[in-house]
């Protein structure tokens, strides 16, 4: 793997609990397939999810479906059955993990322009993506000194964990990736007509479907991506053989997962919605529900007072055994 400096350094790995203690099934899924009559699909999935007490987010677009849902095992199977009944979704692949408590507080089924937003309407993964690399073969690819490894996720995700030596594009949004590519095209195209291998990865694989399709549309052919994403790698590869450093950010209330997809040791700052690790929680600037070292200086006293009241209401709701929507994770689209 070619070595490059990263703008954010991954932090330590957390420790989870055993899977036997985790009763909630969490399923991440996506499928690029032409869908029509999105309103009807949305309404049907919304009814099914609410009937089965499923929580999470499903995104629909003309190009397919993407999302993460959580609930009881049998209920999840009912929803997956409906999704697999959609055009082109019979072979839907999923990534399973477990949680000790529901990682979402509500269910959202939304229609969007893209199921993962790059902002390039002419990029279609159905016309061709990079070469898929199984988790078992990933180490050999990224250990190759002629391979450039790129983390296609955003800066706050990379800060929690990444593959050793991977490039961090330092993007705030996936929309920024095409601009980053243009700025670094010469490096990626190689020198003297010899093009390096480009290995790309993301959380569950969906961003790499588009990023590798984009690079291929720009004339690069030696493009590879991790099949099933980081989640598949962490589920498959033993920690003593792993090239992964840190945790993997996920778009739900678990915040991060580690090897074996065990929940990590991060929490979410309710003020700025960024992941907060053990070191940051030891800071005097971290106050649960109110601030963290990343946002303390950017918040006014009036804002902190509002956050404190929200936190008080959340704790009162917990004491009553109720969920408080003010405690919900930031409204980010899943990968």
Automatic annotation (TrEMBL):
One of its GO terms (molecular function) is oxidoreductase activity, acting on paired donors, with incorporation or reduction of molecular oxygen. It comes from the Bacteria. Residues 143-242 form the Rhodanese domain. Residues 306-323 have a biased composition (Basic and acidic residues). Keywords: Oxidoreductase, tRNA processing. GO terms for biological process: tRNA modification. Residues 306-335 are annotated as: Disordered. It catalyses: uridine(34) in tRNA + AH2 + O2 = 5-hydroxyuridine(34) in tRNA + A + H2O. PROSITE patterns: RHODANESE_3. Its EC number is 1.14.-.-. SUPFAM superfamilies: Rhodanese/Cell cycle control phosphatase (SSF52821). InterPro entries: Rhodanese-like_dom (IPR001763), Rhodanese-like_dom_sf (IPR036873), TrhO (IPR020936), TRHO_N (IPR040503). It holds the Pfam family UPF0176_N. NCBIfam families: PRK00142.1-4. PANTHER family: RHODANESE-LIKE DOMAIN-CONTAINING PROTEIN 7-RELATED, THIOSULFATE SULFURTRANSFERASE/RHODANESE-LIKE DOMAIN-CONTAINING PROTEIN 2. Catalyzes oxygen-dependent 5-hydroxyuridine (ho5U) modification at position 34 in tRNAs. Belongs to the TrhO family. This is tRNA uridine(34) hydroxylase. The lineage of its organism: Bacteria, Pseudomonadati, Pseudomonadota, Alphaproteobacteria, Sphingomonadales.
